[in-house]
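ok new one. same drill as before - structure tokens go in, u give me an amino acid for every spot. 469 of them this time. try not to just spam alanines like last time pls lmao
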């Protein structure tokens, strides 16, 4: 039978427009375009593979599951229904823990882009770790405060920041096309160059590209804060997903039209491409507004994931697998303010720890690497839940994806492959076996911590039930 809502007092603030912009704000990150372009034209094929074998199965699974089970918590609810309380908690635990290093990582990208807008006045901060840290902490405070005050206020930050993504890509494409018409391209797009390099030594790159297509699951975490969620989520997901896939592929092509892949870096690559094209076309005034849009994209990514992922500890608090205080809804703002505040503080702590004894560049790379493998574990639960829940009857008005089991199985196998690729160290890693052991042990530690929290909570619940009986 359908699961009843366990939440109360939440305000339904998100409309179709808000949700489309929310998906674009969180799912379309300009840093992945520069990361892909840095690997050369073969990445275009990798984008297409990632779209077909990960994004489409993920979007299809989320589309059906969110329509059939439109409760707050999304992934948590689906996994719990399919495999029980323990699986539901571990899926949520790995998801919200893996997103903590994402916040400073994406905000560091925004901080680097902001220096372009400052021009020469900001050059002295390029390698200043304190600047990057303060930028990340400051925006995490703003994002957390706005979300505690309510989605009615917080959604406008997402809506505004979403423009930073698609407008920036549109400008880059337009500039690259004009430049290519006048001066030719900076990259050889011959058939030989378009063949991706199947080198396991660079396997981490493949997992990074697949990682870029995550995010379409986040809206479902806030289902009971979306107006007519059963209809709104699928419609918004289809539109936003099409825009996101187009922007990633077309944006990568445009960047390679502007710059050779050897001159593109992950942190500041997008900004460099816009700056180069603007100078080439005698449009220097265009640099600053585009840099502002790039900064907004980074802030929007952090805002979208913080607001959505904080709903997972909220639902876990209601279920008593985290302290009950996490399940509180503010009487005035109608938000899970404790869960949001705690998650925001955890993101700030991660930002502080990321700079302990590290340079800006190494901290950025470490944060991205830390997030990838643990981020994919919840998708194993999501696809497995999609397969298992096919046996349940579909409520009237819910969406059913043709070939749901096959679609989910493709996503499950792709996710497993991506996790394996994530473990393989980069070519420049001097101690490869040590790096592999480190990734595996850290992942086991993270999952083990979740198991310990669940077991302790389950024992406490049983003791309370025994005392009350």
């Amino acid at each position: 039978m359908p699961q009843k809502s366990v939440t109360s007092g939440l305000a339904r603030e998100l409309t179709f427009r808000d949700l489309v912009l929310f998906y674009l704000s969180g799912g379309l990150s300009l840093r992945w375009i520069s990361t892909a372009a840095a690997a050369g034209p073969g990445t275009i094929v990798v984008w297409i593979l990632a779209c077909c074998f990960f994004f489409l199965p993920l979007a299809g699974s989320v589309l059906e599951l969110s329509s059939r089970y439109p409760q707050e918590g999304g992934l948590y609810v689906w996994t719990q229904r399919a495999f029980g309380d323990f699986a539901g908690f571990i899926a949520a635990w790995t998801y919200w823990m893996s997103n903590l290093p994402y916040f400073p990582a994406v905000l560091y990208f925004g901080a680097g882009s902001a220096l372009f807008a400052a021009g020469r006045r900001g050059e002295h901060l390029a390698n200043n770790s304190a600047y990057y840290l303060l930028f990340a902490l400051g925006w995490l405070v703003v994002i957390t405060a706005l979300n505690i005050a309510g989605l009615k206020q917080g959604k406008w930050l997402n809506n505004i920041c979403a423009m930073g993504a698609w407008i920036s890509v549109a400008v880059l494409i337009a500039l690259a096309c004009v430049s290519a018409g006048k001066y030719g391209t900076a990259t050889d797009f011959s058939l030989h160059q378009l063949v991706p390099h199947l080198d396991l030594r660079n396997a981490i790159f493949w997992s990074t590209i697949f990682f870029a297509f995550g995010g379409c699951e986040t809206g479902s975490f806030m289902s009971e804060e979306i107006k007519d969620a059963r209809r709104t989520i699928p419609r918004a997901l289809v539109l936003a997903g099409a825009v996101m896939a187009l922007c990633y592929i077309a944006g990568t092509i445009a960047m390679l039209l502007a710059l050779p892949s050897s001159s593109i870096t992950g942190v500041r690559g997008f900004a460099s491409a816009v700056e180069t094209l603007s100078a080439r076309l005698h449009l220097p005034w265009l640099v600053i507004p585009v840099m502002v849009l790039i900064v907004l994209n980074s802030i929007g990514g952090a805002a979208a994931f913080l607001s959505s992922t904080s709903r997972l500890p909220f639902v876990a608090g209601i279920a008593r697998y985290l302290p009950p205080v996490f399940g509180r809804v503010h009487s005035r703002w109608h938000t899970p303010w404790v869960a949001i505040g705690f998650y925001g503080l955890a993101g700030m702590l991660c930002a502080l720890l990321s700079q302990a004894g590290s340079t800006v560049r190494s901290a950025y790379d470490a944060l991205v690497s830390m997030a990838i493998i643990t981020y994919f574990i919840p998708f194993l639960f999501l696809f497995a839940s999609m397969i298992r829940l096919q046996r349940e009857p579909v409520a009237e008005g819910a969406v059913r994806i043709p070939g749901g089991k096959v679609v989910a199985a493709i996503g499950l196998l792709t996710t497993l492959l991506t996790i394996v690729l994530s473990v393989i160290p980069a070519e420049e890693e001097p101690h490869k076996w040590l790096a592999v052991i480190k990734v595996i042990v850290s992942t086991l530690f993270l999952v083990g911590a979740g198991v310990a929290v669940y077991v302790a909570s389950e024992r406490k619940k049983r003791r309370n039930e025994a005392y009350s009986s």
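The chain has 18 helices and no strands. and btw The chain has one domain: 16-460.
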